[in-house]
Amino acid sequence: MNIFTVSFFGHRIIPEFREAEDRVEALVHALLLEKEYVEFLVGRDGDFDQIVSSAVKRQQRLVRDDNSSLAWILPYPTAELRNNMENFEAYYDEIEICSSAASSHPKGAFQIRNRQMVKRSDLVVFYVDHTGGGAYQTMRYAQKEKKNILNLAEEGYGEKE
Questions:
Q1: Which of 24, 50, 78, 141 is the most exposed place for a label (fewest CB within 10 A)?
Q2: Helix 134-144 × helix 106-120 angle, to 10°
Q3: Cβ(98)–Cβ(125) under 8 Å?
Q4: What's the CA gap between 39 and 77, in Å, rounded?
Q5: 3 alpha carbon, distance to own chain's centre
Q6: Can you give the C-alpha Rg of the chain in angstroms?
């Protein structure tokens, strides 16, 4: 089976929430129709991650749910995960702890996790509209690694010609 892996990174707070949601929905919809199997990798650390997870679940229901998985990638085990394991397992298709991040200092764990996600990905999707922060740093890393990148926050993205 040909697995196409997509990871998502965005700012913790998304002022243009509805616009971001529409762009993510359209992308996920297209990927589910075009690819044999899509592995969606997400965190759970802010607005953009919630937008992505909801869009994937919605599109799986609307388009098809037999050719994709939604994986929550954590930098280390958390009390939230431990205390809500049953609910999270019902929502996400997979829950992974990034081993290289889990064994590192907590301050650097998110960036290590993000880099591992980028390395796994065929496409890295961002919602980055300003310089600074973890999503921006991860975008710079993905550019350096010459990954296929899509920034949904770019002006004009998704507009009809």
A1: 78
A2: 40
A3: no
A4: 21
A5: 16
A6: 15
Confirm whether pTM is higher than 0.90: yes
- 88 with 53: CB under 8 angstroms? no
CA–CA dist 13, 9 (Å, integer): 12
Closest CA to 111 of 131, 77, 136: 136
Q: Which amino acid is at 5?
A: T
- Residue tagged 């064994």 (tokens): 103
Per-residue pLDDT reduced to its tens digit, 47-88: 999 999 999 999 999 999 999 999 999 999 999 999 999 999
Which residues on adjacent β-strands are paired with residue 72?
Answer: 42, 95
**pLDDT tens profile 112-161:** 999 999 999 999 999 999 999 999 999 999 999 999 999 999 976 765 44
User: Position of tokens 């991860």?
Assistant: 138
